[in-house]
Design a protein that fits this description.
The chain is an alpha+beta fold. The protein has helices at about 55-60, 110-115, 120, 125-150, 185-195, 235-265, 280-290, 305-320, 370-380, 390-395, 410-420, and strands spanning about 15-30, 30-40, 40-50, 70-80, 85-100, 150-155, 160, 170-175, 180, 200-210, 220-230, 280, 320-325, 350-355, 355-365, 405-410. The strands form three sheets. Strands 6-10-11-16-15-14-13-12 form an eight-stranded mixed sheet, with helices on both faces. The protein has a five-stranded mixed beta barrel with strand order 1-2-3-5-4. Strand 8 (about 170-175) and strand 9 (about 180) form a beta hairpin. The chain is elongated. The structure holds aspartyl-adenosine-5'-monophosphate (AMO). Aspartyl-adenosine-5'-monophosphate (AMO) binds near residues 224, 361, 408 and 423. Homodimer.
Length: about 450
């Protein structure tokens, strides 16, 4: 018997079909037994009227456990009384292909840590799996835009001989007789690709950060979307690339999943207008101070509270959920960010905030060898040919075009798109300082 998906049952009324799935709920009464079976497309009620002596099927259903994997063959019957789609299956045969042990380790009231311990059971809930359907759509849309814009997709190494960017947040791993490091950004490699004549680079890949952060938006391993564009006229080219990419992604998400996201998570997917609002860091700080923002630590960068306040302020004024913050001071940006022509204390860089959370860092890069070396030294880095930056800096010695790019955290985008409380729920298997399992 050919398998029919639950979502296809309305077109199968009157036919005998086979449905394969898990037992979602059981209501076993003396006269009638109700088994709700769930597959990845929906749920259907299987209704068996008990036949007294010799009712083998009734006996089998009596011994069923919730979450067992079953194959049900029976007739699809229209029944307006049934809440699940106004139809039911009257079973002829039920096969238990793999019985679930009685007493599930998680239920609706289970806390987040226990849910993550039993993530495969957690994922059987449709609203939890929705995240990955949305993720598939987001990645598809981003790839399409990247390809249309002439990007070449690369997969840069995740094992590195020297730490990228800065040494602080890097995981060290044993590598035969020496040490290697897990890439905390494809930053240097995507610039190397630009030096290699690949005009526009796109990558979706793993990023590792040894940050002992326990916030709702930090993971030690996450998926990054990285773009690098050559021959740009300015950082504006990078921002307009990114906003077009995000708009397409959210258009497709709204169209395919908007209704389900709203039903399950109570969040309306807003397709953003172009261009996104832009605000310089200097303007942002002034506006935030007027609104009462007074951070304790670094005052030249935005802290999470500043990001939240600023997003709320911009949304109130413009109705827009996104805001690009531009022109960060050089003191809080990496050495490779291009300094502004008019003011070397400021960089041609940006962060993109969405609903109060930073989802992207981007910049035009310094492409002139001498200046790049000077900027690295200014940050106290070893810029010598035999030092950790040697191979990277070589890329700038034989003709490097002006270029810029950005890195976007996919988990953060999904968390915000669905309104999830934490990035833990936005990734398949979360990795954090205290979590390496399952
Ligand atoms: P940055 O370090 O800001 O920039 O990272 C880019 C984006 O990645 C996401 N992100 C994270 N997501 C989950 N857990 C984390 N621990 C975490 N850290 C960062 C955020 C962030 O905006 N090389 C630059 C990018 C560039 O300039 O092209 C970089 O890595 O969404």
């Amino acid at each position: 018997m050919v398998r029919v998906l639950v979502g296809e049952l309305p077109a199968a009324v009157g036919r005998t079909v086979t449905v394969k799935g898990w037992v979602n709920t059981l209501r076993l009464q003396s006269k009638v037994q109700f088994v709700v079976v769930r597959d990845h497309t929906g749920m259907v009620q299987v209704t068996h009227r008990r036949g007294g002596e010799g009712d083998a099927l009734g006996e089998l259903l009596q011994g069923l456990t919730v979450e067992s994997a079953v194959v049900v063959t029976g007739r699809v019957v229209a029944n307006p009384v049934v809440k699940l789609g106004g139809l039911e299956i009257v079973p002829e045969r039920v096969e238990v292909v793999s019985a679930a042990e009685p007493g599930l380790p998680i239920g609706p009231e289970t806390g987040p840590e226990q849910r993550l311990n039993w993530r495969f059971l957690d994922l059987r809930r449709p609203e939890r799996r929705l995240v990955f359907e949305v993720q598939t759509t987001v990645e598809q849309a981003m790839r399409e835009v990247a390809a249309e814009q002439g990007c070449t997709e690369l997969h840069t190494p995740k094992l590195m001989g020297t730490a990228s960017e800065s040494g602080a947040e890097v995981f060290e791993v044993g590598y035969f007789e020496r040490k290697a490091y897990l890439a905390q950004s494809p930053q240097f490699y995507k610039q190397m690709a630009i030096a290699g004549g690949i005009d526009r680079v796109f990558e979706i890949g793993p990023v590792f950060r040894a940050e002992p952060s326990f916030t709702s938006r930090h993971a030690t391993e996450f998926t990054g979307v990285d773009v690098e564009l050559a021959w740009i006229d300015g950082v504006e080219d990078v921002m307009s690339f990114e906003e077009r990419m995000l708009r397409r992604a959210l258009e497709l998400v709204a169209e395919r999943h908007g209704e389900q996201i709203e039903r399950h998570w109570g969040v309306r997917v807003v397709v953003p207008e172009l261009p996104f609002p832009r605000l310089t860091m200097a303007e942002a700080v002034k506006r935030l101070r007027d609104a009462g923002w007074d951070p304790e630590g670094v005052r030249e960068d935005l802290d999470p509270e500043g990001e939240r306040l600023l997003s709320a302020l911009v949304e109130r004024e413009t109705g827009h959920e996104f805001v690009f913050v531009t022109g960060f001071p050089a003191s809080v940006r990496p050495f490779y960010h291009l300094r502004s022509a008019g003011d070397p204390a400021v960089t041609e860089s940006f962060d993109l905030l969405w609903k109060g959370v930073e989802i992207t860092t981007g910049a035009q890069r310094e492409h002139r060898y001498g200046r790049l070396v000077a900027q690295a030294r200014e940050k106290g880095m070893d810029a010598g040919p035999e030092g950790p930056l040697g191979r990277y800096l070589d890329c700038f010695r034989y003709g490097m075009p002006p270029h810029g790019g950005f890195g976007l955290g996919l988990g953060r985008v999904l968390m915000l798109a669905l309104g999830l409380p934490s990035i833990r729920d936005a990734v398949f298997l979360f990795r954090g300082p205290n979590r390496l399992e399952p």
